Amino acid sequence: MAKGQLYAGQHEEEVLLAEAMQRLIPCAEKLRFTSSGSEAAQACIRLARAVTGRQRFIKFDGHYHGWLDSVAWNVAPPGNAGDAPIPWCGGIAVSAGADVISLPWNDLDAVRRVMVAHGNTIAAIITEPVMCNQGCIEPLPGFLEGLRAICDAHGSALILDEIITGFRLNLGGAQRHYGVTPDLALFGKALGSGFPLAAIAGRARWMAPLEEGRAYHAGNMNGNNGCIAAGLATVEILEREDGQALRRIARLGATLRDGLAHLGKGHGHELRVQGPGPMFHRGCPGPGRATECRHVAAGE
């Protein structure tokens, strides 16, 4: 902070953090920093639209990509949402839902059907690589690979929302963990270790509209000195000893997850605890009962 709080322009540590993330993240040919995941998600969708000239995008039921109107649909839908997307809360512009197609998670056949019928209108498929915000459900084998192939076939962008998985599942994110490289990805939360920092990472072709001025991403606080310094320190610490800190977080998270499940069973509670060690959910499923679901991210 003594070096300056906000320059409203590039500075050395911003370059150093970008280079560090580029070493680690498969899709990170180009990077841009912002202050929140909501902004990063909006920027990724804007980039996909700028490159493809299309408007619509596919998301998945129960996935959260920020609080802005464009993505706040089917975040917590009822069991049978039907065809029309459901706004997350009051005050959301009804018109924003016209560009949203929300599908069941882990259902490749549903994605294929929609893309066969409407692929020439779909700019992107955006997904959490692990369904962290509802149930902490991992992708079925082949699901992410299937999305990659579908996007390639139809010229749409594959966007991975790594706000939760990034720097938790793997230093290179879920994309390195599962071996599926998206066109665009967004990172946050663990990246800043509590400071308001997020990042957009992507292949050069999909980031080009920002470079060329064909699409804009603004924000006075983007890449500010204090948050970038926090991000750089975070990545440097996590990289030490070949990622020892993340392995420890995974072990502790798995111990907590399994311990909660054991305690629930021992006390006769109908408790479900699931998810990979660095993040998991606990819930109380059962007919006729409201489901309680609490997200736990190791290290938070």
Provide an overview of this structure.
- It is a single chain.
- With 300 residues, the protein is of the alpha/beta class.
- It has 2 domains: 12-242, Aspartate Aminotransferase, domain 2, CATH 3.40.640; 244-297, no CATH class.
- It is built from 8 helices and 10 strands.
- It has helices at residues 12-24, 37-52, 108-118, 143-154, 173-178, 204-212, 225-239, 244-266, and strands at 30-34, 56-60, 100-103, 122-127, 157-162, 184-187, 198-202, 272-274, 279-283, 293-297.
- Helix 1 (12-24) runs parallel beside helix 7 (225-239) and helix 3 packs parallel to helix 4.
- The protein is globular and about 55 Å long.
- The two termini are 24 Å apart.
What structural keywords apply?
16% strand, 3-stranded antiparallel β-sheet, 7-stranded mixed β-sheet, 300 residues
What does the oligomeric state look like here?
A: single chain
Count the beta strands: 10
Q: Which stretches are poorly predicted, pLDDT < 50 over at least 5 residues?
A: 286-295
CATH superfamily of the largest domain: Type I PLP-dependent aspartate aminotransferase-like (Major domain)
Task: Give the helix tally.
Answer: 8
CATH topology grouping of the largest domain? Aspartate Aminotransferase, domain 2
Helix content: 25-40%
Strand order of the largest sheet: 1-7-6-5-4-2-3
How confident overall, as mean pLDDT?
Answer: 91
Radius of gyration: 19 Å
